[in-house]
Automatic annotation (TrEMBL):
Residues 90-240 form the DAGKc domain. It comes from Apteryx owenii. GO terms for molecular function: ceramide kinase activity. This is Ceramide kinase. PANTHER family: CERAMIDE KINASE, SPHINGOSINE KINASE.
Length: 505
């Protein structure tokens, strides 16, 4: 925390919504050997802790101390400011915190204890902290806990840990409402308990794409001020069996293969993705199959838009209104969907379905820079078979400002539902007696030199592996909420204005 001293004639402007706490100042701890109040016989003081916005969407906690001789006046100020804070009804008072001690660089516990817990305590937030001992511990616990006691759930970890907590919360919500998750057409019940993400994983793409930075203090402050960001969630089914939910990337081929390989190298920490990424790039496998999807006609945007989803996004707001109208009309009844399906067959290096941009420190604009957080759609990115050099050109564009969709071998669609069946499964279903296929080994029969893999790939579902050669995906508009506000526009400008006001007044 940084301290700030306001000298005579100087003023400070902070909106109440960005005040973290107000406290009487302990004069024994505070040095007051400079300034006009130094001459005060018996000074009284209070400190206001507030959000300071820095560059690149980073927030930190700053403070300013006010001094006066009149004790009563000082107390009146403290009281008045505390009353103003009480009016901030969206702020959480009681949180349930899950820490994955093994995510990312295994720093989750330290990050929480050193950077986050002191801020929660400053903001008078009570917490029940649960350190996980195994995978799915948090998810299982969410089915047992008295959830109504909490104003939110915080997960300290990476995308995988977030996914676990999300599955626990959504699953619990459906169970309590008697909704069968195995029915792919069931209208799911919205989850109103917000999730806060304290990034301590390897990619932290969900945090980065919803806050604009992967920084534990920034995320803690978004939780404290009670931000709320709705989020689309896609459900993944196979043959009327629920498999998983996804909010960031559902990827087959390249990203699935990276993940599968990297799971064996967890001991490497976040570096495992670089190692497996390089290996998978060299292997250059493509996969054959059939894709069907329903275009998302209800939303105004397109994946080729130049504008990205930002705080208060009008496209997401419009989807929210549509959702509310639909609920009024049909309640929880399933609405028959007659919309057309498009079918594409081919050989692909990567099939990616993204519910959000998937921006992360490795790729600051993400896999689909114009994807929206809460518009009820996902972007389907198809990377067809191409040369290694072309695929590298495509990948490099994830790291610079060039358009990664401007390639003849890349197609992108905004969809509301999607299906995939691998060629292998189609062949097995249509011709189970074709023994030659079973004996031919792993690679393409027609072109042994080509890299088309007859074996299936794996799905990368928010960083968790999922093996299924046929899936059915459906986007559920704004199924859940995060303690975030989306990425703020002109953050630098905002921070410059704040400091200008501070200097001027
Ligand atoms: N105590 C635990 N021991 C082992 N695994 C755990 C434990 N707690 C949670 N997990 C599992 O660890 C997996 C990975 O965790 P997490 O997402 O936090 O880190 P990561 O994979 O390094 O980061 P990212 O997902 O951002 O790439 C999750 O699937 C989660 O279910
Ligand atoms: C020559 C330079 C080429 C550089 C190419 C960089 C491309 C980076 C794109 C990153 C996209 C991340 C998508 C997010 C996926 C997460 O749900 C998942 C879980 O955390 N992470 C990964 O699968 C980890 C995926 C890691 C991929 C490397
Ligand atoms: Ca979306």
């Amino acid at each position: 925390m940084k301290g700030k001293k306001i000298e005579d004639g100087e003023n400070c402007f902070v909106p109440t919504s960005e005040i973290i706490a107000v406290e009487e100042t302990d004069l024994n701890k505070k040095q007051h050997n400079s300034g006009k109040w130094q001459k005060m016989a018996k000074p009284h003081a209070f400190t206001v802790y507030y959000v300071k916005k820095a560059r690149n969407h980073r927030w930190w906690c700053s403070d300013v101390t006010f001094w006066c001789v009149d004790e009563q006046l000082c107390n009146q100020w403290i009281q008045a400011l505390k009353e103003l804070l009480e009016l901030q009804k969206a702020r959480p008072k009681q949180l349930l915190v899950y820490i994955n001690p093994y995510g990312g660089k295994r720093q989750g516990k330290r990050i929480y204890e050193q950077k986050v817990a002191p801020l929660f305590s400053l903001a008078s937030i009570s917490t029940d902290v649960f350190i996980t001992e195994r995978a799915n511990h948090a998810k299982d616990n969410l089915f047992e806990v008295n959830i109504n006691k909490y104003d939110g759930v915080v997960c300290v970890g990476g995308d995988g840990m977030f996914s676990e907590v999300m599955h626990g919360l959504i699953g619990r919500m459906q169970k309590d409402s008697g909704i069968d998750q195995n029915n792919p057409k069931a209208p799911l019940v919205q989850c109103n308990i917000r999730i806060g993400i304290i990034p301590a994983g390897s990619t932290d793409c969900i945090c980065y794409s919803t806050v604009g930075i992967s920084d534990p203090v920034t995320s803690a402050l978004h939780i404290i001020v009670g931000d709320s960001q709705p989020l689309d969630v896609s459900s993944v089914h196979h043959n009327n069996t629920f498999l998983k939910y996804t909010v960031s990337l559902l990827g087959y081929g390249f990203y699935g293969d990276i993940l599968k390989d990297s799971e064996k190298k967890r001991w490497m920490g976040p570096m495992r993705y670089d190692y497996s990424g390089f290996k998978t790039f060299l292997s250059h496998h493509c996969y054959e199959g059939t894709i069907s999807f329903q275009p998302a006609k209800h939303t105004l945007g397109s994946p080729r838009d130049k504008d990205s989803c930002r705080t208060g996004c009008h496209i997401c707001r419009q989807s929210e209104q549509q959702l509310a109208e639909q609920r009024k009309k049909c309640g929880l009844k399933h609405e028959e969907d007659e919309e057309e399906w498009k079918v594409i067959k081919g050989k692909f290096l990567a099939i990616n379905v993204v519910n959000m941009s998937c921006a992360c420190p490795r790729s600051p604009k993400g896999l689909s820079p114009a994807a929206h957080l809460a518009d009820g759609s996902a972007d389907l990115i198809l990377v067809r078979k191409c040369s290694r050099f072309d695929f590298l050109r495509y990948l490099v564009r994830h790291t610079n400002q060039d358009d990664q969709f401007d390639f003849s071998f890349v197609d992108v669609y905004r969809v509301k539902s999607f299906q995939f069946t691998s060629k292998l499964l189609e062949d097995n279903e249509s011709d189970v007696t074709d023994i030659g296929k079973k004996h031919f080994g792993q690679f393409c029969r027609d072109h042994p030199a080509c890299c088309c893999n007859i074996a299936n790939s794996t799905w990368n579902c928010d960083g968790e592996t999922l093996d299924s050669s046929a899936i059915e995906v459906r986007v559920h508009c704004q199924l859940m909420k995060l303690f975030a506000r989306g990425i703020e526009e002109n953050c630098k400008e905002a921070s410059r204005n704040q400091s200008r006001v501070e200097q001027l007044l």
